[in-house]
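As a next step, the fold was encoded as C-alpha cells, giving this record:
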Amino acid sequence: MMKWIPVALALLLSACSSTPQKTYYQLPALGASVPVSTGTGTATRQLWLEHVSVADYLAQNGVVYQTNDVQYVIAQNNLWASPLDQQLQQTLVTNLSSALPGWVVSSLPMSSEQDVLNVTISGFHGRFDGKAIIRGEWVLNHQGNLTKRPFSLELKQGEDGYDALVRTLAQGWQQEAQAIASQAGHF
C-alpha cells in the first residue's frame, strides 16, 4: 500500500503542473492606411478620434463570451494582447483613414478646425448562438454640431473558436467604421 503513495503523488503533481497555454489576440486593422498630403492649398478635413471607452466587463484582459441571456465569462487563457480600448482606437483610426480619403484621422488633437469623435462600446464579445456582438454609440462634434448614433451589430461567426471570434469582431468593427465615415462625410 505504501509503495503506491509515491506513484499517486507523482501523478497528482504532474496533473497540477500542466497549466493551459495562454493565447493573445490583436485586432487586425482591415482597412489600409492611406497617406494624406497636406500641402498648401489642399482642403484637407481633420478628424480627431478623442476617445474610445469600453464597458468595465470588457476592460479586462480576457476575451468575453456570453454563455446565456444573463451570464458572461471572461476568458482566463484567451487574452487581448493589449488593452481592448487601445486596440479599438488604433484600428478605428486605420479603418476611418481608409474610408475617408482626403481626411487626416488621428488619435491626437491637430487643430481647432477638426471634427471630434468619441465612441463608447457596451458590447464587444462572442455569444452562445455563434454570433459576435458589437454595441455602443458614437458622438461626432462638427463645428459645434453634435451627432449621436447608437450602433448594434450581430455577425454570424464562420467557424467556432476564439480566432474566428476575433476576426468576426474585427470585421464588424470595420463595418461600423464605414458607417461612421458615411455620416462624417455628409458634413
In short: The radius of gyration is 22 Å. The beta strands are 23-25, 45-54, 62-66, 72-80, 103-106, 115-127, 131-142, 145-156. The helical segments are 4-17, 84-99, 162-184. The first helix runs from residue 4 to 17.
